[in-house]
């Protein structure tokens, strides 16, 4: 007669395996890292997306007023959009896209491949962005994590330089517990490391009101780093110090098809120029 193992032994073995699996998934850099619980009353870590603080502080969006010089429509997407219908966006007139790649040093967008490769395959010029969490790791460490997980650049005419998404903290204090000088130092650290790793200067995505509050309206990055301004209104409005013009404008978080919608400040050939460096 075969010897039957007690049910409790099998149960405890399974529980131990599940515990090990959960620990591995929680490690920084785990493939397809899932969103993790935040603190009390906070959203899950990893759930932040471009504009998450803008909508809360500046409103949900508007329709750009005209007339304007020629502009080129684009979108930005994250895991919130899941698998994106890129043919529908292309047909609607969207010609460029940015995809969230990483957050902090603990999260990678599980839909990144479909979104990044899908936009490229349909014909769009596309790039990747990093949601910064300056309270969790240094700027250099986050730049490395970004580059190592989809945020690189190549001169193929279809890849835009990476974006540092620096805005209100959805998980805690607006400025991530940093002084204005400390925030400027953190941003400089990220930008320098990204330029060293890729040979390109990263784009800075931010909102003027956050920039004033958390950097003291520092103007020292404007000469090298293109500005992607977030303002959900009918006009771009005031820009952060130093920048005389914006390169991109995120004007709404409620796009007609999917994702946040944006205008590139120029015709399609200017998008190509940014991609080519």
TrEMBL record:
Keyword set includes Transcription regulation: no
InterPro entries recorded: GH, Glyco_hydro_25, Glyco_hydro_25_AS, Glyco_hydro_fam25_subgr
GO biological process, one term: peptidoglycan catabolic process
Region forming the signal peptide: 1-33
MF GO annotations: lysozyme activity
Subcellular location field: Secreted
Residue ranges crossing the lipid bilayer per the database entry: none
Classification via PROSITE patterns: GLYCOSYL_HYDROL_F25_1, GLYCOSYL_HYDROL_F25_2
One Pfam family in the UniProt entry: Glyco_hydro_25
Catalytic activity: Hydrolysis of (1->4)-beta-linkages between N-acetylmuramic acid and N-acetyl-D-glucosamine residues in a peptidoglycan and between N-acetyl-D-glucosamine residues in chitodextrins
Enzyme Commission code: 3.2.1.17
Keywords: Antimicrobial, Bacteriolytic enzyme, Disulfide bond, Glycosidase, Hydrolase, Secreted, Signal
Function, as annotated: This enzyme has both lysozyme (acetylmuramidase) and diacetylmuramidase activities.
Name of the molecule in the record: Lysozyme
Native source species: Streptomyces fradiae ATCC 10745 = DSM 40063
Taxonomic lineage: Bacteria, Bacillati, Actinomycetota, Actinomycetes, Kitasatosporales
Gene: acm
